[in-house]
Each structure stands twice: as C-alpha cells, then as structure tokens.
Design brief:
36% helix; globular; Glycosyltransf_2; glycosyltransferase activity; glycosyltransferase; Nucleotide-diphossugar_trans; Glycosyltransferase
Length: 304
C-alpha cells in the first residue's frame, strides 16, 4: 500500500527540521545561510530543549517562516516533536544545527522526490565532516561550499543502507501513512537513530544518496554527549537495534568492533577533542551489562 499524495504536483512544500540543545551560537551562525537556497524552504521548525537554546530576535529575515517549539531533551524526542509540527510538508529535511547546505540542496532534493516516487529518503554527499576531527570553523565550511558550488553538478543517486542524520530528507506522506517515529528508547544524543529511522522507512521504498546534494558538517563539539555515555551507547544501541531488527548483524557487529578497537588503541594518545578514556569506560560498562542481561540504551541516563 502506498501513501503518496504529492506525486505529480509541481510544487512540493519543503520544511527544514533542526533539533538543538545548548548550541545557540552555532545555530544562529548557520541558519542565515538557508536564505541562499535556489529554491526557498517553506518552513523551518527548530525544536529546542530550553528557552535559551534559541534567540527568536536573532532569526532576522527567517523569522517569518520559522517556528520554535520545545521538547524534553533528547534527539529522538526532539525530532518526533518536529514530525508533529510539519503537517503541511511534503518533504521534511532534517539538518543538524551545524550543517551547511550548498545553495542547490533543496532544489535538488525536490527533484529527486518528484522524479522518483519510490524514494522515501535522500541524503547528501558530505564534502567535509568535522565530526571526524577537531571541527571545522564556519568560514572554512563556507569556503568549501563556495568552492564546490562553482563546479557543475555531477553524478546521480545511489542506493544506501541509511541516511546520515546530519542531512536527510524524508517523504512525509510515507511517514504519516505508516505512523513512523524516531525511537525514544535511544535517549540523549540518540546514537544510530538515523539508522533505525532509515530502516523503518526502507520497508516502504528506496533510500538514496546523491552527489548533487552537497554540504559541510562543521562537527561543532559543544553540547555533545559525555564520553562515558557515548561509549555505552556505542555498544548498547547497535545491540538494541539488532534485537529490534532495524540494524543487521552485518552492519552492527563491525561498527561495535571499530569503536572498541579505536577507543582501546587511542586511549594512550587520544585526540584532544575526544574523551577516549570515557568512551572506553562506557564500552566496558556496556559489555558487563550485556553479560549480565541488563544492557539497554536507556541506561545512559543514569551514567556519570
């Protein structure tokens, strides 16, 4: 059964959803660049966890199309709140509060969803990802965007297992039709929430990555989950998703092993921006809980 009311329409209504917590400076630095899209977005919904996460007076030219809503802290809870608030949208583009999109990103996203009615999620090609290093300064990110934007668009859409949570667009008719939600059993940072939601959607259509959807993930380090909590989630969340059958053992097991090895090897010479000791401690606590039959993603909420 297909839930598709917008196929064949010339105009798709596009909303951007941004969940944010404790990162007001970077949020308000990145938001104005959405004004540079070749196809303007119809609505921006920002879900914050506290009043001081967003300054409505700083929204400037975006204020007329931006709504600020609130939810209890937690990426999945905040993204579900956004889903509840975009009742008129045909496409919802989830962006991290530190993700810069190329000027053609929204226009190309609409093209994909219009041309391929079986696509239920699209995700972009990240030209630089600061999450893998110390982070990328805003000006450097903008320079990368400008450099890439000068080149003619190339490449097409390729099938992928999941979208990348920092930039993924979803077909809202499918989400509404099947009542899909982010799993709030993945608390706080919601490690692998993008995989879980992607695989829910994948039961009803295709997920693609496009080289025409380009952006830069600044990887800002403020407002992140503590090392021990993230380390626990690196074990608990993939195990939970395997049991739930939204992540295959073929994808989950290598990821668990990569994190364990990286945290163990790099503990002696950790990167300044990574709490390797905390992550490894969280890994070990999760493994102990796994052996004892107590492993659950929610346990991170009581870890120090």
């Amino acid at each position: 059964m297909a839930f598709e009311h917008s196929h064949g329409r010339m105009n798709y209504r596009v909303a951007v959803g941004i969940a944010t917590t404790g990162r007001r400076l970077i949020l308000h630095s990145v938001l104005p660049h959405l004004l540079h899209q070749s196809q303007p977005v119809d609505e921006i919904v920002i879900c914050a966890a506290a009043d001081d996460d967003v300054d409505p007076a700083a929204l400037g030219a975006l204020s007329g199309r931006t709504r600020v809503v609130f939810s209890e802290r937690g990426l999945c809870r905040q993204r579900n709140r956004i889903l509840e608030c975009v009742g008129e949208a045909d496409i919802l583009l989830f962006l991290d509060d530190d993700f810069l999109v190329a000027p053609s990103y929204v226009e190309e996203t609409v093209r994909i969803f219009r041309e391929y009615p079986d696509v239920v999620m699209s995700t972009g090609t990240v030209d630089a990802d600061g999450i893998l290093g110390p982070g990328i300064p805003l000006e450097d990110g903008l320079r990368i965007i400008r450099t890439r934007s000068d080149a003619p668009p190339s490449g097409g859409e390729q099938p992928v297992y999941n979208g990348y949570g920092c930039n993924m667009a979803i077909r809202m008719s499918t989400v509404r039709g099947y009542g899909l939600r982010f799993d709030e059993n993945l608390p706080l940072y919601g490690w692998l929430e993008d995989v879980d939601f992607s695989r829910q959607l994948a039961r009803h259509g295709r997920i693609v990555r496009s080289q025409r959807l380009r952006g830069v993930h600044l990887g800002t380090k403020t407002g992140r989950t503590s090392g021990i909590r993230l380390g626990y989630s690196q074990i608990a969340n993939p195990v939970y998703l395997m049991r739930k059958k939204t992540m295959s053992p073929r994808h989950a097991a290598p990821q668990i092993m990569r994190n364990l090895v990286a945290n163990t090897v790099k503990i002696f010479r950790p990167e300044p921006w990574v709490d390797r000791r905390g992550r490894l401690s969280g890994n070990m606590r999760a493994l102990v809980d796994l052996v004892r039959g107590r492993l659950a993603p929610q346990n991170v909420t009581v870890l120090e």
